[in-house]
């Protein structure tokens, strides 16, 4: 999410310019001007103004690209990963005598594919463990209905496994998006993507 883009101002905009842009958008997006409906655009605009109108928050955002209190989307995480991976891959290849013979895009796709396969294997193992614990709990409840403490311990363990499963599920989604982006991408396009991401600019797609 690019806060400057949301307000329609440049990255070097002054506070007065940001304030003026905010007032203009408030007139267009405020619920009172839209049948009482508080749209997503209005909420994003308010959030952008809250960050960019505060000197410290704006400095933090300019440095990291992170919006306080907002979890990045899988697409944003995937692009961040690709940008970092691209730079790291180039650095690694620059230390090799065969730099010109190596294809950084091919290497990145291979690494992403291996990572996704590993995530899928771990996720499948967790799913099996969760199912086994659920069956064990069910049988334990029937045979020993008074063993509440043991069942509670098992349930707590299952909750932890399920939380880890959710994390792996999100990771799988991120890797899928990253591989989709890499499909057919050129070196120049990847280089531009990395440059824009590292400069906290919106992705070129």
Describe this structure in words.
The model has no long low-confidence stretch (mean pLDDT 82). The two termini are 13 Å apart. This protein has 205 residues and is mainly α. It has eight helices and no strands. It has two domains: 3-64, Helix Hairpins (Orthogonal Bundle), CATH 1.10.287.110; 74-198.
Labels describing this entry:
205 residues; 2 domains; 8 helices; single chain; mainly alpha; Helix Hairpins
Could you provide a short overview of the structure?
The protein has helices at 3-7, 15-29, 40-52, 55-64, 74-94, 104-143, 148-182, 187-198. The protein has 205 residues and is mainly α.
Write the layout of secondary structure elements.
Layout: H1 3-7, H2 15-29, H3 40-52, H4 55-64, H5 74-94, H6 104-143, H7 148-182, H8 187-198
Helix pairs in contact: 2-3, 5-6, 5-7, 5-8, 6-7
Please indicate the percent range of residues in DSSP E strands (runs of 2 or more). Answer: under 5%
Give me the number of helical elements: 8
Percent helix, as a range, is over 70%
SSE-based structural type: mainly alpha
Number of strands: 0
Low-confidence stretches: none
* Shape estimate: flat
H-E order: HHHHHHHH
């Amino acid at each position: 999410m690019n806060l400057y883009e949301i307000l329609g101002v440049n990255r070097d905009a002054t506070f007065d310019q940001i304030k003026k842009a905010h007032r203009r958008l408030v007139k267009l997006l405020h619920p009172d001007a839209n049948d009482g409906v508080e749209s997503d655009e209005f909420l994003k605009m308010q959030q952008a103004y809250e960050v960019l109108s505060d000197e410290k928050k704006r400095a933090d955002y300019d440095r990291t690209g992170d919006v306080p209190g907002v979890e990045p989307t899988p697409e944003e995480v995937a692009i961040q990963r690709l940008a970092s991976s691209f730079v790291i891959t180039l650095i690694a290849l620059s230390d090799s005598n065969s730099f010109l013979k190596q294809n950084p895009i091919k290497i990145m796709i291979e690494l992403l594919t291996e990572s996704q396969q590993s995530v899928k294997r771990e996720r499948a193992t967790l799913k099996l463990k969760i199912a086994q614990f659920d069956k064990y709990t069910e049988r334990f409840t029937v045979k020993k209905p008074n063993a509440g403490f043991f069942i509670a311990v098992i349930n707590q363990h299952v909750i932890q496994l399920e939380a880890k499963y959710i994390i792996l599920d999100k990771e799988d989604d991120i890797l899928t998006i990253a591989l989709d982006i890499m499909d057919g991408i050129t070196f120049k396009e990847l280089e531009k993507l990395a440059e824009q991401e590292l400069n906290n600019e919106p992705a070129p797609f």
